[in-house]
Automatic annotation (TrEMBL):
Keywords: Kinase, Magnesium, Metal-binding, Transferase. It holds the Pfam family PEP-utilizers_C. This is PEP-utilizing protein. It comes from Streptomyces kaniharaensis. The lineage of its organism: Bacteria, Bacillati, Actinomycetota, Actinomycetes, Kitasatosporales. PANTHER family: PHOSPHOENOLPYRUVATE-PROTEIN PHOSPHOTRANSFERASE.
Length: 414
């Protein structure tokens, strides 16, 4: 070994314990490179998905773009901001020691097996959290166990990033721009639907662009500057204020009906993001003017929604998705994107597990399907300590490892 070693903190892992690549500091896509940036942001989408790994100077393990990397199996290593300037040329990432070496180093290698790996049967009716079409192909190429995945969950903003759409710019335009945006979203959903296996469906999480993320993918529309975007105007509260989004959503549903006919309602479902209670759910359904037959699920990711789970089910939620990443930060007052409080951001904290248990039990009592998001490293812990939900949600790369472990014991979590 030679060269300087920089110690960091691994935010997301991968399938290799050691990997090499050339640093890319341009912010532009460079296939197979090590992307080096101060922080991950939506505007870096193309550069991130082209990278072999990412090195950044700030951020937490469950930020939105970190979750994108987790889904793709792209390792993310955080180092001190002062060390970023030294990352040029060829570098080697050591995932097990959470460090990076400048210059050449030992050959890359696959991770070894891990004991106690959960089995595909433990997942229930599994849900894959995806960013684009490639993720569906990745899951459905896992052999017979792919049939355990009955839905693919995609955020509308990730769909926009993959398709090169700028939603706020479109919504700030005239009726023609709004209709075009709706058709473009529907076209993308139809392309995803074509890759589904029999019995699978898509769940679209309605647009949830926080102001800080929106600023990175908006060119024309004004974006308000908020002191705390995580707790700001996004999710259900933003959707309730937007009439143009309602029009765009109707354009989506109309185009889906034209393209998919009677299969539209079976193949594509909708879910409400960042919801607090049954009143918001009821108001939003009315505001969006959804036809009676269109199912609408609720995403439970705030403590208020945990306590309102029974009422949300009674208000007509077709199913519940429990978003533990946001739930952790709100229960523990620890920003998921702030590495300075990473020690307080605990996905297995008793208060968090109690909240998850409440939601699962409330949904089961109401007869409403419920799914719980789990990081790969937490799945076994959740399986042991929580009542069984109808299924677990996982990012693509980690879900793939569970599915393949069912036929190949040497496959382990990265």
């Amino acid at each position: 070994m030679n060269g300087r070693r920089i110690q960091g903190s691994l935010l997301t892992g991968g399938t290799q314990s050691v990997l090499r690549g050339t640093c890319n500091r341009t912010r532009r896509p460079l296939a197979g490179s090590i992307l080096v940036v101060p922080s991950l942001e939506a505007g870096l989408y193309d550069a991130i998905v082209a990278a072999r790994a990412v090195v950044c100077g700030m951020g937490g393990a469950t930020g939105h773009m970190q979750s994108l990397c987790r889904g793709r199996g792209i390792p993310v290593l955080r180092v001190d901001q002062a060390d970023l300037a030294d990352l040029v040329g060829e570098v080697t990432l050591h995932l097990e020691s959470e460090s990076i070496v400048i210059g050449s180093d030992a050959a890359a290698g696959e991770r070894g097996p891990s004991a106690g790996q959960p089995s595909p049967a433990d997942l229930g009716s599994a849900c894959a959290v995806i960013a684009d079409l490639q993720d569906i192909h990745t899951v459905n190429s896992c052999g017979p166990n792919a049939q355990r995945v009955d839905c693919f969950f995609i955020r509308e903003e990730f769909l926009c990033l993959a398709a090169g759409l700028r939603p706020l710019d479109a919504l700030a335009g005239g009726p023609a721009d709004i209709a075009a945006y709706g058709r473009a979203v529907a076209d993308r959903l139809c392309t995803l639907a074509q890759a589904l296996l029999p019995g699978q469906r898509l769940v679209l999480r309605l647009l949830d662009l926080r102001s800080d993320h929106a600023a990175g993918v908006t060119e024309l529309a004004p974006v308000a500057v908020e002191p705390n975007p995580e707790l700001g105007l996004h999710g259900a509260r933003w959707l309730l204020r937007s009439t143009t989004y309602r029009d765009a959503l109707h354009a989506v549903l109309g185009a889906l009906q034209e393209r998919l006919a009677d299969d539209a309602g079976r193949l594509v479902h909708l879910s409400v993001p960042f919801l607090n209670d049954e009143e918001e759910f009821t108001r939003l359904r009315a505001h969006l003017e959804l036809p009676v037959g269109v199912p609408l699920a609720a995403f439970i990711e705030t403590p208020a929604a945990v306590h309102a789970a029974t009422a949300i089910c009674a208000a007509g939620a077709s199913e519940l998705f429990l978003g533990t990443k946001d739930l952790v930060q709100f229960y523990l007052a620890a920003d998921r994107s702030n590495h300075l409080v990473a020690g307080s951001y605990r996905t297995r904290h008793p208060a968090v597990l109690d909240g998850v248990q409440r939601v699962v039990e409330s949904a089961r009592a109401a007869g409403t399907p419920v799914r719980v998001f789990a990081l790969g490293e937490d799945l076994a812990h959740y399986l042991e300590r929580l009542p069984a939900p109808d299924g677990y949600m996982m990012c693509t790369a980690e879900l793939r490892q569970v599915l393949l472990a069912g036929r190949n014991p040497s496959v382990a979590f990265g």
